[in-house]
Amino acid sequence: MTEPNETNAVIERVKQIIDNDVRPYIEMDGGTIEFIRYDENIVYVRLAGACGACPSSTLTLKGGVERAIRRRIPEVRSVEMDGLHTPAASGASELTMIQL
What own/partner pairs with CB < 8 Å and gap ≥ 24 does 77-82 have? Predict the structure, then answer.
């Protein structure tokens, strides 16, 4: 089991990566990302704006966000969406690939 201080350190590192490295790319396509929680080595986030309704949001999440976080924080096993996906809306933005 992860100690509370270790968990807090991981959460702070995840938030920094999201704020400094991930969010700017997501915002370029009209979306946003929010850290929700860290539980059992899984990071939960919420994608909103254009990303919340984009049919490619899962690819953005796994191919960009998860890769960026796991590369820097190996103890993170996965990055998942918090809650249910919203249905895809017409005119959704294309996939954002994050190269870090």
Answer: 77/40, 77/41, 77/42, 78/41, 78/42, 78/43, 79/42, 79/43, 79/44, 79/45, 80/42, 80/43, 80/44, 80/45, 81/44, 81/45, 81/46, 81/47, 81/57, 82/36, 82/37, 82/44, 82/45, 82/46
Helix (H, G, I), strand (E, B) or coil at 69: helix
Q: In the chain, which residue ranges form alpha helices assigned H by DSSP? A: 4-17, 23-28, 50-53, 57-60, 67-72
Q: Which residues in the chain show pLDDT less than 70?
A: 1-2, 84-100
Q: Give the pTM.
A: 0.76
CATH superfamily of 4-81: Fe-S cluster assembly (FSCA) (3.30.300.130)
